[in-house]
Amino acid sequence: MFLPESPCLSLAIAPLTAAEPDHYAIWVLQAPYPGGYVHHDRRWTQLLTEAWHNWQNMFSIRSLPPVPRFPRTSPPVISPITSPPDPATPPLGQPTSKTGLLMQNLGVNLWHWLFDESPIQISLERSQGIAIGQGKPLRIRLEVRDPDLISVPWEIMQPQPGKQAVSLSQQLLFSRTTSDVDALPLLRVEHSLQILLVLGQDEEMDVYDPAATPTGDKLLKLEQEAKMLADLLEAAADANSGNAFSSPVPCQVKTLVQPTPGELIDELESGSYNVLFYSGHGVPAPDGGLLFVRPNAPLNGTELAQVLTRCQVKLAVFNTCWGAQPDHDGDRAIPRSSLAEVLIHHGVPAVLGMRDSIADQEALSFIREFTQALSERAPIDQAVAIARQHLLTLYKFNQPAWTLPVLYMHPEFNGELVKPMTEGVTEIPENSPSWIGRKTPTAFLRSLTSPSRTWQVHGGIMRVGSREGNDLVIREPGVSRVHAEIFYRDSFTSADGQHTYFLKDYSRFGTLVLMQDGWHRVHHQEVPLLSKTQLRFGHSSALEFVIDG
């Protein structure tokens, strides 16, 4: 069971003075107990800078900007704050390669710099104790106010060799944040994943090449890729592995292939999307970067932020380089210029970007696990930790894949994307009128083959699918785990005065509905159901829907 209302410890890092750029203040912005609001001063050391240079030399696909605190030395020196474990006898599940030990060494040093031998460490330990007492994870949110430190991989911090990195833990849910934000509006309650998948310009295409507009085979390839990604997202949500008593989360995906900025904005405004997935080319810029949704038609981060907040998109995911990196003016990073920070600043609740280039297969593996966790009603930060663990399992410590996703969360957002289930409480769907005092007309499904069977619609709603926990479980080919819902909406009546039920399809292949001119496939749509309407779910036999009386 996922519990989004968890205690939170929010920290900030900022330079003390411009005259001493290596001196930093670290303080608590939010704590789960009154005495947790403490502060501490730290000096950024040359040894940490050199450990960061070592990381860049080993892991960065692109040339990430250095932390411009000290001149680089040669040969680089590894920080002696902690000694790496003996490769011959590593802790279970820990890295054994030189690259893995390098990653671990930087992670341990970053943790020591932020927490060790300071009031911040005491605040962390007591906050953890409170979370354990409540049986919940502790949220840790880090606000880095020095733009030159944003590119540092804080996600790899770990207390000591043999311990889990902070971003891999489900007991310490790590994300980044910023307090320079617009307030969150009252967010609507979500009962399904409504995803807009946008494929933009391929990164390998020349950004300003007028002839770069895809035609023929190129466009067909992009459309095939979009279908593959949409199928992956729906299959991941359909693979919901929750227990039989948890309500399945339907998932609908709409795809746009290289839309114009206007077409993208129109689609966002016309739908009720809660997730935006963008895959394509992007570059840093002072106003949140540029997303090339199609050649020579960029959309900047500020423009996108305004439409996302207006349309109440809760989560924006960007499979594009530099989504979590600031723009630079020479060798200095520009404050609050990364796409993730700009979107959070304007009131987008959660943004997931990449710190560096990520391979296609790595990105697909992450998105699959991330979407499945969301469909199981995990809070967004917990879903990221689950997907990150999956990347580490696949690619080990030898590759930085698990370190690349960077999650930003609005300080007022609790991470809830889809409404969680509460133990012992039966969920009443948003469109169900089945609360106390409301009477719904009796309806049922019945088989048309002998011997006849009937399945009554209880409380004005029936969920159909192949997964245990549905009201009607059909284990036949073509039936999705969360296939469809039949529900009553009392504000509508048919032309002849009959009460009106509706069918809403969530499946991968659709539901067949027999109408006057024959069978029609309903796919990710909502249609009214009259009494005596015949339905087919997957390859199952036809069932008749009946409204009693």
Jot down its keywords.
549 residues, six-stranded mixed β-sheet, 27 strands, elongated
Walk me through the topology.
Layout: E1 8-15, E2 23-30, E3 39-43, H1 46-59, H2 98-115, H3 119-134, E4 138-144, E5 172-176, E6 193-199, H4 217-238, E7 251-257, H5 261-270, E8 275-279, E9 282-283, E10 290-294, E11 297-300, H6 301-310, E12 315-319, E13 328-329, E14 332-333, H7 339-345, E15 350-354, H8 360-375, H9 380-395, E16 405-409, E17 443-447, E18 454-457, E19 461-465, E20 472-473, E21 484-493, E22 499-505, E23 511-515, E24 518-522, E25 526-529, E26 533-537, E27 543-547
Parallel strand pairs: 1-4, 4-5, 6-7, 6-8, 8-12, 12-15, 19-20
Antiparallel strand pairs: 1-2, 2-3, 9-10, 10-11, 13-14, 15-16, 17-18, 17-27, 19-21, 21-22, 22-25, 23-24, 23-26, 26-27
Query: Percent of residues in helical segments?
Result: 10-25%
* Largest sheet properties: 6 strands, mixed
Straight-line distance between termini: 41 Å
Can you tell me the overall shape? elongated
SS content category: alpha/beta
Overall description:
With 549 residues, the chain is of the alpha/beta class. It contains nine helices and 27 strands. The chain has helices at 46-59, 98-115, 119-134, 217-238, 261-270, 301-310, 339-345, 360-375, 380-395; strands at residues 8-15, 23-30, 39-43, 138-144, 172-176, 193-199, 251-257, 275-279, 282-283, 290-294, 297-300, 315-319, 328-329, 332-333, 350-354, 405-409, 443-447, 454-457, 461-465, 472-473, 484-493, 499-505, 511-515, 518-522, 526-529, 533-537, 543-547. Strands 7-6-8-12-15-16 form a six-stranded mixed sheet, with helices on both faces. It has a six-stranded antiparallel sheet with strand order 18-17-27-26-23-24, with no helix packed on it. The protein has a five-stranded mixed sheet with strand order 3-2-1-4-5. Strand 26 and strand 27 form a beta hairpin. Mean pLDDT is 82; it is low at 70-93, 205-211, 241-246 and 423-437.
